[in-house]
Write a structure and sequence with these properties.
- The structure is a single chain.
- Strands 1-2-3-4 form a four-stranded antiparallel beta sheet.
- It starts with a helix and ends with a strand.
- It is built from one helix and four strands; from the N terminus they run H-E-E-E-E.
- The chain is mainly beta.
Length: about 80
């Protein structure tokens, strides 16, 4: 489950890509067959001046385990920084 949040985490977007999203500060609280997860995210965009933050925020997730797999039941997305460009 943790690997899904961490895939693609890096410092800047890959060459040829317009942007990349990174998740950090991940906290997962397990309670039997359910879990709550909290994380922060930031979108880094390529620009003529180099990488810049496009938007950022947090996820608050409710998860449930079904048939041995963790699934999202609910996701709240809060945005703290909005790209006005």
């Amino acid at each position: 489950m943790l690997r899904r949040w961490s895939v693609g985490c890096g410092i800047r977007p890959l060459p040829g890509r317009a942007s990349s999203t990174h998740c950090t500060n991940i906290v997962i609280k397990l309670d039997g067959g359910t879990a709550k997860a909290f994380s922060n995210w930031v979108t880094v965009q390529n620009s003529a001046q180099g990488p810049k933050i496009g938007s950022a925020g947090s996820y608050t997730d409710d998860l449930v385990k079904q048939d041995g797999r963790w699934l999202f039941r609910y996701r709240k997305i809060d945005r703290f920084i909005h790209d006005k460009a």
